[in-house]
Amino acid sequence: MTIKAVIFDLDGVIVTTDNYHYEAWKQLADEENIYFDREINERLRGVSRMESLNIILEKSTKNYSEDEKLEMATRKNNYYKELIKNLTPCDILPGVNELLASLKSSNIKTAIGSSSKNSPNILKYIGLDNAFDTTVDGNDIKNSKPDPEVFLKAAEKLNVSPSQCLVVEDAEAGVEAALRGGMKVLAVGFASKCCDNATLCSEDLTKVAIKDLLNI
Ligand code: BG6
Ligand code: MG
User: Which keywords does UniProt give here (predicted)?
Assistant: First the structure.
C-alpha cells in the first residue's frame, strides 16, 4: 500500500461550517458598510482569518490600520464562536464516520490539518476530539495554505513521509498545499468541481472506497 496516513482538512471536509463563517463575516461587513456576498465567501475557503479579512476589505474604500483590522478579525471571530456552539455530531458530513472506522481497522494513521484556530472547539462540539491520531491547526502554524506547513507538521507528528500521506481537501488553497508538500490529495466538495490537479476527486466521502484511496 502506498498510503500510510490520511490527513483531513476540517472545515468543509469533516463538518460544514461555511454558513457560520458567512453569517459572522456578513455581520461584520454590514456593520462596516462593506459589500459582501456568498461568492466572495467562497474565496475565503481554506484561507486564514486575517487573509480572509483582507479579501473582504478589497470592497472597502477606507484604509484600516493594523489595530483596526485586528479588532475586526476578533469581532468576527466572536460572532463565529457563538454560532459554532450550535454544532453537534449531526453536522459531521456524510461518509466521514464510516471512512474513519475503515481507516482505523486498516491501521492507517489519521490527522487533522486545518487552518482554523477554532479547530479544537469544533472537534469537541462534533464529538471527534479523540478521533484522530494527531491534530495540527491554525494555532500551530506560521504560514497558512497554500503553504504546505500544516500538512508537513501533521506528517512529521505521525512519523510518516509526505509521499505516503493522502490529504483530503475541499479548498483550492488546500489542494495546492498538499501537492506542494509532496503529498497525494483527494479533492471533495467545492474542490472536486475545480481542482483538475488533484490526485483523486469525489463529490463527498460516501463515494470513496478505501482500497482506491490507499493504492494510489
Ligand atoms: C479554514 C476555513 O478552515 O479556517 C476558512 O476554510 C477560515 O474559511 C480558516 O478562514 C480560519 O478559521 P478561523 O476559525 O481560525 O477563523
Ligand atoms: Mg476546508
Answer: Magnesium, Metal-binding
Does pTM top 0.90 for this prediction?
A: yes
Characterise 140 by phi-psi region: left (phi > 0), alpha (psi -120 to 50), beta (else). Answer: alpha
* Backbone dihedral angles phi then psi of residue 136, each to the nearest 5 degrees: -130, 130
- Comparing CA positions, the residue from 113, 96, 120 lying closest to residue 174 is 113
Residues 72, 106 share a domain: no
Is the pLDDT at 195 greater than 80? The verdict is no
Which ligand is closest in space to the CA of residue 56?
Answer: 1
Domain total in the chain: 2
Q: Are 94 and 178 found together in one domain?
A: yes
Q: What tens digit of pLDDT does each residue of 49-104 get? A: 999 999 999 999 999 999 999 999 999 999 999 999 999 999 999 999 999 999 99
Q: How far, in Å, CA of 149 to CA of 88, rounded?
A: 29
Question: What pLDDT was estimated at residue 50?
Answer: 95
Whole-number Å distance, alpha carbon 13 to ligand 2 midpoint, is 6
Q: Which residues line ligand 1 (CB under 6 A)?
A: 10-11, 21, 44-49, 52, 77, 114-118, 138, 171
Q: Is the peptide bond before 146 cis (omega within 30 degrees of 0)?
A: yes
110 phi, psi to nearest 5 deg = -130, 150
| Segment 36-45, tens digit of pLDDT | 999 999 999 9
Q: For residues 116 and 143, what is the distance between their CA atoms, to the nearest angstrom?
A: 12
What confidence score (pLDDT) does residue 38 get? Answer: 96
Nine cell digits for residue 112: 487533522
